[in-house]
Amino acid sequence: MEGAEQWKIQLEQWKKQLEPWKTQLEQWLNQVIEHIHQIPPTQLYAAVAVLLFTTLVLLFIRVLKRAKSNTIVLTGLTGSGKTVLYYQLRDGSSHQGTVTSMEPNEGTFVLHSETVKEGKVKPVHLVDVPGHSRLRPKLDEFLPQAAGIVFVVDALEFLPNCRAASEYLYDILTKASVVNKKIPVLLLCNKTDKVTAHTKEFIRKQMEKEIDKLRASRSAISAADISSDFTLGVPDEVFSFSQCHNKVTVAEASGLTGETSQVEQFIREHVRP
Ligand SMILES: Nc1nc2c(ncn2[C@@H]2O[C@H](COP(=O)(O)OP(=O)(O)OP(=O)(O)O)[C@@H](O)[C@H]2O)c(=O)[nH]1
Ligand SMILES: [Mg+2]
User: Fold this and answer.
1) How far is 95 from 112, CA to CA, in rounded Å?
2) Which residues cross the membrane (predicted)?
């Protein structure tokens, strides 16, 4: 009780100490208001307009800067050929004999095929995220800044990997960081140097079928789990990539032999000079 009494006294003292400040502040405020009244209204409007304009320009620059990301993320199952592709795009050589990656490869460079080009070429920030399931959480570090995602699929060993690849792609296409920013996705059918490789049309159809099946099983789970980010496709319609929030396109490549023009085109479309 005594403590409360003491506090009251202390507060009263503070209030008294602040009293002169209050009047001083009021005086200043009055002076400012008077000053403003003296300024012709046109000048005042002009000042406000300039202030608004600069704020808008600064905001616009910020948005533009964020939109102009130059990061392209290579992802996909282990063994699909991401690292070979990464080296091919960077050096124009496959560095034969890559082993399964334990760490992401990351670099900012002008694409090898563009080093001979004249004029301004914007460097690309390329990230190759390992496909091993334990390293996949690494992907989340890079997705928020991605201008495009290249999902690499092994077109040779496609059928045994179809389900796993579809699950991984499903996870990516339902992530909030990917959907909200509408990051474009390239489904890249790799290893087409071999005649036994499946065509991109076949791969697209098979993966659509697989995702259609996944959709049913996943939505049953997510009914209880609210944390699931998004759902895919249109309810009660057979799934196709065209229904995705994100633009999904399909292309072919062979990292090993350097047939990478379609990936390069995708990269250039989304990382503009
Ligand atoms: N025929 C053929 N083989 C390829 C091609 N690209 C990669 N490979 C082979 O596929 C295997 C895997 O390639 P990597 O680039 O290491 O695969 P990755 O996707 O980086 O795998 P992780 O690092 O484990 O995620 C290697 O033996 C490559 O030689 C290609 O275009 N054609
Ligand atoms: Mg690798």
Assistant:
1) 14
2) 44-64
- Which ligand is in closest contact with the Cα of 253? 1
Residues, the chain: 273
Confidence check: pLDDT of 203 > 50: yes
The tokens for 162 are 């179809």
**pTM attached to this predicted model:** 0.77
All domains of the chain in start order, with CATH:
2-65 (no CATH), 69-270 (3.40.50.300)
Two tokens at 136?
A: 């996949």
Pocket of ligand 1 (CB under 6 A): 78-84, 98, 100-101, 130-132, 190-191, 193-194, 254-256
What mean pLDDT is predicted for residues 7-19?
90
Q: Which atom of ligand 1 is nearest to the CA of 259?
A: 31
* CA separation for the pair 137, 129 (Å, rounded): 10
